[in-house]
Specification:
By secondary structure, the chain is an alpha+beta fold. It contains one helix and 13 strands.
């Protein structure tokens, strides 16, 4: 009768890390696969009751007809790496629209890219980049109106626009405003 020996501790750790990486990859894939379905929702929708506490607010996508090419990735801490918004690639027009009524808080160039920031009140501030715009700080904009066009520069791939949202100074996933953040589902793992 042959005795069964346990693998060395290093092999066990490597195996556990591999299993954790597989599970993480599956969870990320599920989130990314669900994101385009949210992107096909109507141009104007009400915020989800499960999202931030502004359930009655009406939001519209900053571009019409698009796909999400870079998902939101929350940083581990305030100064950590992450992606504090989503990048949208329009399928037709390069027009950029105000996602909700508000007042332009900033319109200008920072680090070779056009930035447009709109204060919507109730603690919500959105940032769109790279954007060419003729608007100036203090200009009132209505939700859904064209505020500029997609430009070049920044981290976003050419032809895409970065859509970031802050609520009371903290970045939040823009999909929360459209009810598009799928619930995390843990899958069985390992032996």
């Amino acid at each position: 009768m042959a005795s069964r020996t346990r693998p060395p501790l290093a092999a066990q750790s490597t195996r556990r890390l591999l299993h954790a990486a597989v599970v993480l990859t599956l969870v990320v894939a599920a989130v990314l696969m669900a994101a385009p379905a949210a992107a096909r929702s109507p141009d104007t929708v009400s915020a989800s009751a499960e999202g931030p506490d502004e359930a009655a607010a009406t939001w519209s996508w900053p571009v019409r007809g698009f796909r999400i090419v870079a998902a939101y990735q929350a940083p581990a801490h305030d100064y950590g790496p992450g992606h504090r918004g989503i990048d949208l690639q329009p399928t037709a027009s390069s027009e950029v629209r105000a996602p909700r009524s508000g007042v332009v808080a900033f319109a200008g160039r920072i680090a070779d890219r056009g930035i447009l920031t709109i204060d919507h009140g109730d603690g919500y501030v959105t940032t769109l980049e790279p954007v060419d715009t003729t608007l100036h700080a203090g200009t009132r904009v209505e939700g859904g109106v064209v505020v500029g066009s997609i430009a070049l520069g920044g981290h976003a791939a050419a032809g895409t626009v970065h859509f970031g949202v802050r609520l009371n100074g903290e970045y939040v996933n823009p999909l929360l405003l459209f009810g598009g953040v799928p619930r995390a589902v843990l899958l069985p793992c390992c032996d």
